[in-house]
Amino acid sequence: MLPMVFENIDSSAIYCIKCEESGVFVTFQSNIDKIYQYSTKDVENFAKSVENCINDPESSIGRYINVSTRDGTLELVDLANK
């Protein structure tokens, strides 16, 4: 099922989300030239949650990504230390 790419998202915060075996890659509207890499325990399950959130008109994908980073579901990968 992976990779999954979510583009043309109706969001003022999120430009693109790409879920691959190696992690989750998020591009924010504020700087579409920078891609943030995140790790998560279950990328496939996270991708399904993103898809459900995007398809639910009552949900906000920006809020979902924000909550996921705050609760530890998504952890920013520090590429400078690799």
Give a quick rundown of the structure:
The protein has 82 residues and is α+β, with helices and mostly antiparallel strands. It contains two helices and five strands; from the N terminus they run E-E-E-E-H-H-E.
Protein model, in words:
- Strands 1-2-3-4-5 form a 5-stranded antiparallel sheet, with helices on one face.
- The chain is globular and about 30 Å long.
- Helices cover 28% and strands 28% of the residues.
- It has one domain.
- With 82 residues, the chain is of the alpha+beta class.
Q: What average pLDDT do the residues reach?
A: 94
Query: Major beta sheet, specifics?
Result: 5 strands, antiparallel
Report the total helices.
2
**What is the first-to-last residue Cα distance?**
28 Å
Helicity level: 25-40%
How would you sum up the global shape? globular
How many separate domains?
1
Radius of gyration: 12 Å
Class from helix and strand fractions: alpha+beta
Number of strands: 5
Which stretches are low in confidence, meaning pLDDT under 50 for 5 or more residues running? Answer: none
- Kindly report the spatial arrangement of strands forming the biggest sheet: 1-2-3-4-5
Q: How is the topology of this model organized?
A:
Elements: E1 4-6, E2 14-20, E3 23-28, E4 35-39, H1 43-55, H2 61-70, E5 75-76
State the main characteristics.
single chain; 82 residues; alpha+beta; 5-stranded antiparallel β-sheet; 2 helices; 5 strands; 28% strand; globular
